[in-house]
Amino acid sequence: MSSSKIITSSHPLVLSKLTQLRLHDLPAKDFREGIRAIGSMLIYEASRSLPTADVPGLQSPIAPFTGTTIPLRIGLSPILRAGIGLTDAALEMFPDATVLHLGLFRDKVSLQAIEYYSKLPSQVTADLVFLLDPLIATGGTAIAALHMLTEWGLPASQIKIISILGSKTGVEHVSAEFPDVEIFIGAVDDELTEKGYISPGLGDAGDRLFSTTH
């Protein structure tokens, strides 16, 4: 990946947990825990460059001190339904964040993203939004969600994508369409099947999270 906006993790914990997630016989409970754990690590990395502000006049048990806060309104935008698997991890980092649900699904024939739900307030309520999308396969769903957020009034530069796994084609597609959006991702696989699945991938994240795999 050539873009400086695509940050692929090389952390041993991320890579080892992702190996577990790829296993076809991993129980749903362990899959959910793995998604949440990797999500936490990626959100931690994505937050590294956030601005800070001083909080003076605080008191520890020993002495007065000046603390630190993040002076931003944070939004979390999970793409339903798989994005729910990353929401708790994000809320642990930002418990006061606004949660902005976006409902999108990929048509199985055309592979195009179809919008069916949006919970965006009439006015922009966040200075920075983490778009939570566990898999970037073709990139169509992430791009549709980004259009929804930017049409809402949020600049693309104020959006960061958190994703567990992507295909090279899909990630590059998203980056080309929205070059100002940072993508923090656990790993990128080279291949995408004719049906739009990442290969070797980890299957359908939503099905595996919610035990609806047939």
Automatic annotation (TrEMBL):
Q: Which UniProt keywords apply?
A: Allosteric enzyme, Glycosyltransferase, GTP-binding, Nucleotide-binding, Transferase
Q: Does the keyword Magnesium apply?
A: no
Task: State the family named in the UniProt similarity comment for this chain.
Answer: Belongs to the UPRTase family.
Q: Pathway it acts in?
A: Pyrimidine metabolism; UMP biosynthesis via salvage pathway; UMP from uracil: step 1/1
* PANTHER family per UniProt: ADENINE PHOSPHORIBOSYLTRANSFERASE, URACIL PHOSPHORIBOSYLTRANSFERASE, CHLOROPLASTIC
Instruction: List cofactor names only.
Output: Mg(2+)
Extract the InterPro entries matched here.
Answer: PRTase-like, PRTase_dom, UPRTase/APRTase
Q: Which residues form the Phosphoribosyltransferase domain?
A: 9-212
Q: What is this protein called?
A: uracil phosphoribosyltransferase
Does the entry feature the keyword Nucleotide-binding, yes or no? Answer: yes
- SUPFAM superfamilies documented for this protein: PRTase-like
Pfam families attached here? UPRTase
Show the GO MF annotations: GTP binding; uracil phosphoribosyltransferase activity
CDD domains from the entry? Answer: PRTases_typeI
The UniProt record lists the EC number as: 2.4.2.9
Q: Name one GO cellular component term.
A: cytoplasm
